[in-house]
Amino acid sequence: MAPWSAFVLALAVVGLLSFVLRWTFGNDRTAVPTGRDSDGYGLLREVAIVPTEAAAQVLRTRLRAAGIRATTARGDNGAHRVLVFPADEANARLLLSGSV
Length: 100
Description:
By secondary structure, this protein is α+β, with helices and mostly antiparallel strands. The chain has helices at residues 3-25, 53-65, 89-96; strands at 45-50, 70-74, 80-84.
């Protein structure tokens, strides 16, 4: 096999591999839904909105004491949100409602 034909064959293999990988793992630019609302918190779900950071920290501490992973975030309007993962949402709402 001539040296130039080996180079052409290698180039063809790399090109074919690039095409297959691009087709398989392509760059899908469609929007990914983030849940019920598009608030920008990804998988996290809002379980409470409170006016102050201190109130949000109290609720977060209560949830964590019950074994529920929680975090807080400040919203655009200045209110503070308490956020949990979807699997913990029902338990968090139940706990924060005072029924537990």
